[in-house]
Amino acid sequence: MTAGWTWEYEGYEPADERLRESLCTLGNGYFATRGAFPECTADDIHYPGTYVAGCYNRLTSDVAGRQVENEDMVNLPNWLPLRFRLRGGPWLTPDTATLLEHRLELLLASGMLLRHTRYDLGKGRVLTVRQQRIVHMADPHLAALRTEFTAEGFSGELEVEASLDGGVTNSGVPRYRDLDGHHLIHVHAGTATPDTVWLRCRTRTSDLRIGMAARLTSDALVTVRNKSRRTTQHTLLTLTEGGTCTVDKIVALHTSRDPAISDPLYAAVDRVGRAPGFDDLLTSHFTSWDQLWRRAALEVAGEPGHVLRLHLFHLLQTLSPHTADLDVGVPARGLHGEAYRGHVFWDELFVLPFLNLHFPEVSRALLRYRHRRLEQACTSALAAGRRGALYPWQSGSDGREETQQLHLNPRSGRWLPDNSRLQFHVGSAIAYNVWQYCEASGDMEFLHTKGAEMLLQIARFWADAAVWDDSLRRHRIKGVVGPDEYHDAYPDATMPGLDDNAYTNVTAAWVLSRALELIAALPEPRRRELAERTGLDGSELEQWEEVSRTLHVPFHAGVISQFDGYGELAELPWKDYRHRYGDIRRLDRILEAEGDTVNRYQASKQADVLMLGYLFAPAELRGLFHRLGLTLDDDIWHRTVDYYLHRTSHGSTLSGLVHGWVLARARRAEAWKFCQEALQGDIADVQGGTTGEGIHLGAMAGTLDLIQRGLTGLETRDGALWLDPVPLPELSSYGFAVRYQGNWGVRLHLERRELDIAVPSSDVSPIEVRLTDRTVVIEPGESTRLELPD
Ligand code: BGC
After folding, report:
1. Which domain holds residue 751?
2. Last residue of a domain, one of 249, 274, 294
3. What does pTM read for this prediction?
4. Which of 347, 419, 420, 610 to mutate to test the pocket of ligand 1 (most atoms within 8 A of CB)?
5. 274, 294, 314 — which closes off a domain?
6. Whose CA is closest to 527, among 610, 593, 452, 469?
7. Of all protein residues, whose CA lies closest to atom 7 belonging to ligand 1?
8. Domain count across the chain
9. Which of 100, 434, 510, 521 qualifies as a FRET site for 236, CA 20 to 30 Å off?
10. Half-sphere exposure for 356 (CA within 13 Å, toward CB)
11. By alpha-carbon position, which residue is closest to atom 9 of ligand 1?
């Protein structure tokens, strides 16, 4: 395999273990397991975790004198455990025995985690442990672990114990430790056949049933011991000097959410019994990964290419073609850890645009997750006194608002009200994704049915939320929080929320105008159906038209204001804070711990106004402002970019990405610094300790899209593929393949100012490519080279 396809860690570093476990997680879209040592249990260093997409449970805890309810993605029984010791000796772990060598290799091409460790047993005796681990990409219910033990300098007996452990809790995030993490009950273990054991349990309140089964193949006899929460298979290997013994553990996992099964335990036992041996499992697993890499081909040279491949790998492990069959959303932290409790935020805005052009069926499934919760979103709007759909800031199983009521500031130890639920802009992100998905895939059926239903109700919410201000002669949207989560209230205000967040209002105007356009374009029978079901009539459409043209976008000092009054807030002494604290990304926590509040300052956590430059190409953004009766020229935009660049602390991994994107599009030299920050986000744990709690999926996918749409200026609109590449000197050559409106494997390659496009043969329609200075039509089976204008 060519260089850049392996992600490696050399040596054992306890302090890095949590991060490595996250980045060495293996998954297949259905479930994922962190890259923990099989011989270690959860403690301050290690945290094995296994999560099935969409498997949540809700518990109530006492926090700071209040009863708070939280829904968590459940840490399921641990299938990994496999420990070993010389007969009668202590169990060997990296924390209790001496390691002579330790290496982890994540093979990105084949989706396998290799582990090579040499344990020093004293007196010249060395035990080499080599493991190969997969979470199967072809059969999403299977995982497998092969362990090879080699004796050096001795012969002797090695005891090996392999378990399924149901005694696990959700305890992977220190900040959540005051919360109840005991999600599993009725844990029972049993034996199916001498080499196959099982474990079953239920989640405490969501009452999901989980079945797990393990088949152990050893060179020696296997015996079984079942305890209440654990089943253990034991085997005694006879090691000879220089000889190798192999133990294979194959595991099946089902839950009662799975289709086409009667009982998860029966399904797991049955599946593991039918599963082929380890080598055959590898073959089918590798084939599936090959296919994935072909469908998401990305060529970027050097270290950036290496990191991007890792990002793509984790994206594909969280959202794979298997996701297309599930009722799940985009978990902000992947299936890689417990931060944000597996919840679904607006982060899909950074994920779907990439998926749309490779796995449209996955995008569609993720949008269907939102559509199934449209009724709940309408109920939430009603409860807030509004019409339409109010999607939750954090979504879990049933689409109700899952944002916690209190959050802990680890710096001050105080539990504080969490007002981030006022980020109503999540609805616009869903609408944007509906539109983008349909443009990229040409899926008119979705656009006219579920897509239209969502768009209509989201638009209706915005129109109803907008209030007319006679003095401004404009509509205003009050009491919201924008993407910059730092500001959640005006200084000294008794109520949370801010007025006229520019991002919220401009995207709301976009949603309204798109909804109007779509309704006008619907086939008449379908328009009638929608009107009958929703009570939509001409006067409501007139109101939408009016609101879409009159929403207030505040300005100050010649720049777009993040919200009304932002310009009147105090300036933060940035230098002073940087000097005093070094890392000031979480300025909100620093100021709160000082007894102050970030609400008083012009200081933002992440891109907010600048998100507009991320979502919309300059011409579209100018058009949106024009529709609002406002002028947005290059000068205003560039001033706005500079203004916020100096007032943002980048307390979210999304921030570096958006700034990198916006600056690259503006052809600014600082772009690369932010792109690099986005590339480093998880591998260097830029947000200080957060990667160990799960990857940042939005930022990872966003870096892929930075190449795909950011640098190329690729847009799918009006039935054409629009391209307007911008140069980024540090990334001047790249290529990728997309699926566009039924054309599979369309390859684009850009080298300096030359663009090659090749469309594989098929009987699908040709592709119309529009550059800023010309339009070309490429027939299936043809390729073309285009010189780009400077
Ligand atoms: C960011 C949000 C994001 C969330 C989940 C927060 O830190 O501010 O924009 O949606 O993380 O990734």
Report:
1. 731-787
2. 294
3. 0.98
4. 347
5. 294
6. 452
7. 652
8. 3
9. 100
10. 28
11. 483
